[in-house]
Amino acid sequence: MNNYVFYEVILNNINLFIILLLFSSVLHGVIFKNLLYGWLDPFLLPIIANIFCFVVVYILYLTSNTSFYTFLSYNLTQISFFCGLFMFKKRIKFNFSRPVDSISYSLNRSAYNIFAFYFFSIIYLGCQITIYVFKGIPLLMESRLSTFADGGGTGILGRITDVSSIFALYAFFCVIKIDKFRLSEIPKFLILLLIFITYFLSGGKSNFLAIFYVFWCFVFFSAIKKVDYSAYKRFITTHLKKGIVFAFFFVLAIISVQSRDIEDQLNPVLLLVLRFVHSGDIYWYAYPDNVYLQIDSSNGFKALFNDGLGLLRVYPWEELPTAIGIVFKDIHHPSDVPSGPNARHNVFGLIYYGFYGSILFSFVLGLVISFIRNLLPFLLRNNLLNGFIFTYLFLKMTALDSDPMLTLTYVNNLLFIFPILFLTFLLLFEASKFKFQNNA
């Protein structure tokens, strides 16, 4: 089923769609009420996506556009995923509305942290400018995936920008003095502004949220480690409503720029709602008429670890399976543009691991997310590196259910790209200290 046929299904059953949306919202609200750490928790957006995915699958089944087999597979994998999510219990009641707990440590604004902020910021901005020069601006492209589709070295630059941007942002919140404005802080804010502009030019509706999410993770990690975050708490409680309004119009601006085709000339707000509906586009591509059976299911290991096997040259890239989202898109909307829906765990698992294997697969994904959210921060010591590792995994691993292949790409960036950058940072920092001591 292609997009236009599914739109017709919704329009012909608009009352059913609204009822399902309301029911799904209440259901997911009950399920995740005690899982979220607050309204700024980065896991909120994936939950909203799951709300719309539920609606998509149920409306397909209730309108006889998918079989009971796929409908049952979806429900069992979702239940299994939720069971995994609740395996590790919340160990801290964190909310910006709560008083700041007793403080054991003050924030460390050492030369080490400041040097790290400037180093990773320069690395990130330098790589982004190089990408713009050789590949163009993603916001103005028909598909942002085209930026790295042709290789030529930009793929490595994309990996570098992925990890360096998060480290730079985390280091920014470690070194900035947010209680009042200071002229000495202007260079840091200028760099933050440049990073923000690159997020807008990236064309990703949720990319710029990384700034807010990293800030939230920084405060969350500080709360766990008993670091004084009271100034940040006051800042966000004062400016939260402004930030939400700004975020809303920022997303609308990106959508307006990207929707230049005649067929896309719709109200940006309506397009935003449509983007949420498209959280479940993999289901109407895969389930109706059992189209998912057209995918070669013999390479489950290669499909899941596609990026690592290609990055380490275990297999040539051309011998590795194509992302199933791109395959499904080409089945229903053939084009040369490298784009497609996210390979959500229900469909990915059903294709590569079968009916029962997909249930176990979904449980493992939920278990991994639960570990990172509820246990990992308590196992890490309080320093800049560990704070970044927690933040990066906390942000990136929330996508495990929506796109396992892409999430493992992020893991590879952390395992194979970041250590090189961090070692370079350490060498330069030690060299600068040695030079300073000699001059002294």
Automatic annotation (TrEMBL):
Q: Does the keyword Zinc apply?
A: no
Please provide the record's keywords in A-Z order: Membrane, Transmembrane, Transmembrane helix
Indicate the transmembrane segments per the record.
12-31, 43-62, 68-88, 114-134, 154-174, 186-202, 244-262, 350-371, 407-429
Could you tell me the superkingdom of the organism this chain comes from? Answer: Bacteria
Q: What is this protein called?
A: Oligosaccharide repeat unit polymerase
